[in-house]
Design a protein that fits this description.
This protein is mainly alpha-helical. It has a domain of 124 residues: Arc Repressor Mutant, subunit A, CATH 1.10.10. It is globular, with a radius of gyration of 21 Å. The chain starts with a strand and ends in a 14-residue tail after the last helix.
Length: 178
């Protein structure tokens, strides 16, 4: 008896379905990276229209939000904080600077390093977006539940911390003993 796939790639199985797999891996739809991506997309789908209405991309918003938490930050640290690659960050910073939403300068201690801060105009934009952003958070909280949302954020933080020290297969320094 063949098992049938649903639109999300999951199987409706009979007792033998587990043995009928072509690969010894969990279902694609049940992989942790895909579950996290689907959840991220469901959340970001709520915020994108507001960001678009204010002329912002998700990445630009992430940078501006990160900059509101600090007085200033080195570009390399901002890349780590906002989870952006250097070339993408450089382009985004150039765009934000052209719109006068951020200010850039060189670090006094090392003239090769750039330092970024949010500008007064950038703060005004954050203040303009904030009410709608908070309303979206309130709706998400209402639908999902405040306690479950707190637990989810706690669990995601725990997952991140527990994997931080894990060796990554294929990376330099990872053990070769399989």
């Amino acid at each position: 008896m063949a098992d049938e796939k649903s639109r999300d790639g999951s199987h409706s199985h009979s007792g033998e379905a587990e043995q009928g797999r072509r690969t010894p891996m969990r279902e694609f739809s049940r992989s942790l990276p895909m579950s996290l991506l689907r959840a991220r997309e469901a959340v970001m789908r709520q915020f994108r229209p507001s960001l678009r209405n204010h002329g912002l991309t998700e990445q630009q918003w992430r940078i501006l939000r990160a900059l509101t938490a600090v007085d200033s930050i080195e570009v390399t640290e901002l890349a780590r904080t906002a989870f952006l690659l250097g070339p993408s960050l450089s382009r985004i910073l150039r765009d934000l600077e052209a719109r006068h939403l951020i200010e850039r300068r060189t670090a006094k201690a090392d003239l090769r390093r750039g330092v970024v801060s949010i500008s007064p105009r950038g703060l005004k934009l954050i203040e303009a977006v904030a009410p709608n952003s908070e309303a979206i958070y309130a709706e998400i909280t209402s639908r999902f539940g405040a306690q479950k949302l707190t637990e989810l954020q706690d669990m995601l933080g725990l997952l991140e911390r527990s994997l931080a020290a894990m060796e990554v297969a294929g990376e330099q320094g990872a053990g070769d003993d399989g």
